Amino acid sequence: MPVVDLRVDRSLLCPNFDGYKLSFDPVPVIQQELLATPPLKLLPHSDQYSLLHAEAFGRHNMLCPDPWLRENCYYVNKSRQVVLCSYDGQDGRPRQQRVVHTVEEKDRGDGYQQSGGAYNYTLRFVSEKYCVLCDGITMYYLFDTGDRSRASSTASWQLLTSTQINQESANRGFVLYDARLDVIQERKQISLLAGHVGRRVSPRSDHADTFFMDLTWGCWTQQPTPSDAWSYSVREELDTTGSIYYCAFEPRAESVVFSTNRDLLTKSQRAAAAAAQPVAQNGEDVEIAATPPYTWTQTDEDVVIRFRLPAGATRNDFNIRSTSHQLEVECLAEILLNGALYANVDSDLTTWTIEADSLQLTLVKQLQQSWPHLLSDDEGAPPEGEADVPLLPDRSLPIPNLEDPIEDCDLGLPDVDVKLVRFNLEAREITHTIFLGSTPPLFTTSLRAGFPAAFATRQGVDASLWLQVFQPAKPGEWTVRHEGNLHAFAYVQASKEQRKFTDCCPDLDYAVICEGLRHVLIYKSRYDSAGGLRKRNGPQVVIGKQHMVSISDEVGEILGLSTARNVITILTEKAVLYLQV
Fold this sequence. Notes:
Elements: E1 17-22, E2 29-33, H1 51-58, E3 64-66, E4 69-76, E5 81-88, E6 93-94, E7 98-102, E8 122-125, E9 130-134, E10 139-144, E11 158-164, E12 175-184, E13 187-200, E14 210-222, E15 230-240, E16 244-249, E17 255-260, E18 265-266, H2 267-275, E19 294-298, E20 302-308, E21 318-322, E22 326-331, E23 334-340, E24 351-355, E25 358-364, E26 418-424, E27 429-437, E28 443-445, E29 454-459, E30 462-469, E31 479-486, H3 489-494, E32 499-504, E33 511-515, E34 519-528, E35 542-550, E36 558-563, E37 567-572, E38 575-580
């Protein structure tokens, strides 16, 4: 499996960037009242308490931008109405909100209530005239939006078709990750990928249940008939127990790219893995793996081995034979331990005692060192308390640079290995991998209409944005291109612990961090040349500009964020805010 490197375009870097300067210049904020009812915001159900549930609800951006018209964005209110929020860049003020469609409510046995496992609505625009809506329960809707570029248009969206996300699944509650329109052999094809947080019940009573993200890859295809009917099919089912940081189809949708911190498996691969595991029979737990009848601890000088005392056993029932390199422990004709030790011990100093319900055996090492294993054949239990601790490589570590202290953003996530993987539908396997270390992508955004979403990674203190590179002549090759850079933004973002949404302008003129309640932070890296200030024997210093906008408590929680060339649109519980940048 090829490993792809992130190759930084050094022409996009700014080595003389010297940070952001807080600006006290006011940012004009226009507040627009909601058209009718407040935005529809669903909270997790009582049994939706896992980390995956928290991410699916907490990270959900309820304001969907139109990639073809960035000044337009949409949200769904409590009346199931899709509402358009539009900003007039020439007049410098928002247009009146209007309803473009009302989603038909269906009774799914809950009395027309979108509750009991339902997720929030998700919108995805796939072209200048098509839009896909996921109702957060079990359905997709495909709309013909008409000409959205006409500001004076009052036409409503036309429903073309609707379908169940996965007819063979009883899952309730989906979130739409990505949707893409392609024309394959003169036929329109819309690829869709939705996720549902599932729960896998453990066969053992002493093990917790496992939550996982169940992903359904579906596809709408327009049939070459006079009616232009759309047919839907499920192409693949995937799942992972990790978080989904990024998900986007590549052009032609023959592959999909994920960023996650766990393995990604197909339905057949997961079934094969489950079949290889013992399962509970007749309500009794099956031992998953043989547990050694002893535990052991060590220091640099000695090793202490503890054996649980069998019922009715006494001191005279044990038979212990010990040499400098071999150890055998027998009790009641049962061999508890027999093998060559990892290193030599001083057999004259070997002692053993009976304490409470265990036998304690003490070995004194001939050489002061740490043993990775008790036995030389690499078998048996690891030292107690060190089962999951990887050993450091036996080599000299580099001397740290004490002039650059470690920051919180340098540490990443503990015990996490984040990867970006490309899953190919034809091969039914992962074909390419990018290792991102312990730091997941900082955020994802749409830079160009019709292109896969870009993702931002940390490169030093900067945030680098990357786009997939599609090569039709070489479908087996895949890579990503360094599209742009946000100077020092990775360092800035890591310090904002209350951040809820992060995004940037399509031309990378600014980046924005939005907190849940009070503050919106705007960063413009191309702002000031510091009055001609230069570093000693170096180029002219560049300083960025930072704005902090405080949001009134009266508008409620921030629910969505959208960025355009000269305006930032923010959806709250009680109003829509337009920040003129």
